[in-house]
Amino acid sequence: MRRCILTAVLAFVILAMLAPPGFAQAPAPKVTISGLFDQVTSGGRNLYDGNFTRNSDTEWYGRTRFRPDFEFQVGKVRAVLGLELDLAYGQMGTNDSGFPWNNTGTTSGCKANTNGCLDLNTDVGGMIEIKWIYTEFPLTGKDSLMPFIPVETMARAGGQPFDTLASYKLASYANGDFAGISGVTTFTPNIKTNLAYVIVEQQLAGGNRGILNVPVTPGTGAGSPTFGANTKTTRGNDWAFIFSSDLTPTKGLDIKPLFSYFHADGLTSATARRNLADIHSGVGGQGAMLNSPASYNGLEQGLGGGGDPTYHENRYTIGADARWRIGAFGIDPTFYWQWGTIDRLGIITTPGASGSSVNGLGSKKMTADMMAFLADVIVSYQLGPLLLEARGSYSPGNKARDNLTKSIRYYQPLDTDGGYYSADWTAIFSSWSSGDYLQNNPFGMSNYVGYDRYGIIHFTGRATYNLTPALSFMGLVGPVWTAQAVDTDTGTAGSSTLGSGGTLGIGTPVRTTVSQKSWAQGDSNYLGTELYGLMTWRFSPNTAFTLGAAYLFAGPALNAAECTVPVAANGIPVAAATNCSNGVVKKRAAQDAWEAAARVRLAF
Question: I want to staple 420 with a disulfide (CB 3.0 to 4.6 A). Which of 38, 216, 276, 416 is the partner?
Answer without folding.
Answer: 416
